[in-house]
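Progress note, sequence design subtask.
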């Protein structure tokens, strides 16, 4: 069974850890949000790709979810001493990845090729693809003005009230090499429990990607990011309120609309009508939790496929 997963940051990476435990590496392709990417201190940072690479290779910080577990912070301390920007934390070991990527991008390599090489260097055998090789920047229209994603998310702790979200550069971008092919060949497409507005929408905004998903014969299933009527981490529930949508699974289902045929929700949470659903404990605190959720999502996809035949 060939699986494609669409994912953003920490929550999404946890689902992919579970998939990695039950799907053969050659059958798993992960398409990653790059709307959070930015250039900081001269370095190209791709936070969601980094989080996935560190998480899948067992290197991610257990406490933070992003960055590396075995980290030191001498570079940040030296920056502070010199009066440099220190609102975005770059660990000493983490720097190596950003420097390597920045140098290769400057030399003309595509983000897709660089990401593949980094994944191989970390021993990851499934295919990790950025959504696009062209820059697409998530920009937020908020009550304190227009903000780039990391200014909003990290510097301002997602506190400003969001009116609208834009994906600048999307109309001129193309899906990365391999993205459309993977979707065409997939038996199941899983949307990770990442933020629908900030992590999954940028992926779907890449021209051609939404149409490829709709044309695909794959069973399309999302794992809801809501647990017990709120989001586990990050501003999903806050954004739903700001967009005047009830914080319930129906809002998640209707947001994805015809992209979705199935929704996996947390046990005991409200179940939307109009699509296939399943429930399980979707909290992922350990690798075996991730495996349970991945298993339940694939079961739901199999059920959707069986209903068709
Ligand atoms: N998230 C933070 O909340 N604070 C940081 O200082 C921070 C630094 C950072 C450095 C490299 C990297 O790959 C990710 C980093 N993140 C940090 C995480 C990241 O900004 C967000 O979690 C994602 O963009 C949202 O998915």
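Output:
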């Amino acid at each position: 069974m060939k699986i494609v997963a669409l994912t953003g940051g920490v929550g999404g990476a946890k689902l992919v850890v579970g998939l990695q435990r039950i799907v053969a590496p050659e059958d798993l392709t992960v398409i990653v949000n790059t709307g959070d990417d930015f250039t900081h201190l001269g370095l190209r940072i791709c936070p969601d790709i980094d989080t996935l690479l560190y998480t899948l290779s067992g290197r991610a910080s257990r406490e933070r979810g992003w960055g590396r577990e075995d980290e030191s912070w001498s570079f940040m301390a030296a920056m502070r001493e010199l009066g440099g920007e220190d609102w975005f934390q770059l660990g000493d070991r983490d720097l190596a990845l950003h420097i390597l990527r920045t140098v290769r991008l400057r030399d003309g390599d595509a983000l897709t090729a660089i990401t593949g090489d980094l994944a191989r260097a970390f021993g990851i055998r499934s295919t990790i693809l950025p959504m696009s090789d062209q820059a697409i920047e998530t920009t937020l229209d908020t009550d304190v003005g227009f903000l780039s994603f990391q200014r909003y998310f990290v510097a301002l702790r997602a506190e400003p009230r969001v009116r609208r979200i834009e994906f600048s550069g999307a109309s001129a971008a193309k899906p990365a090499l391999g993205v459309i092919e993977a979707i065409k060949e997939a038996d199941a497409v899983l949307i990770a429990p990442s933020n629908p507005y900030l992590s999954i929408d940028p992926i779907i905004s890449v021209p051609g990607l939404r149409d490829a998903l709709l044309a695909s014969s794959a069973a399309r299933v999302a794992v809801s990011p809501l647990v017990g009527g709120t989001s586990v981490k990050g501003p999903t529930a806050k954004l739903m309120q700001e967009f005047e949508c009830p914080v319930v699974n129906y809002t998640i289902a209707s947001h994805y609309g015809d992209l979705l045929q199935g929704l996996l929700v947390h046990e005991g949470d409200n179940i939307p009508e109009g699509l296939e659903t399943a429930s399980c404990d979707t909290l992922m605190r350990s690798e075996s939790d991730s495996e349970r959720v991945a298993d339940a999502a694939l079961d739901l996809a199999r059920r959707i496929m069986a209903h068709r035949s």
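The mean pLDDT is 97. Work on this subtask will continue into the next period as scheduled.
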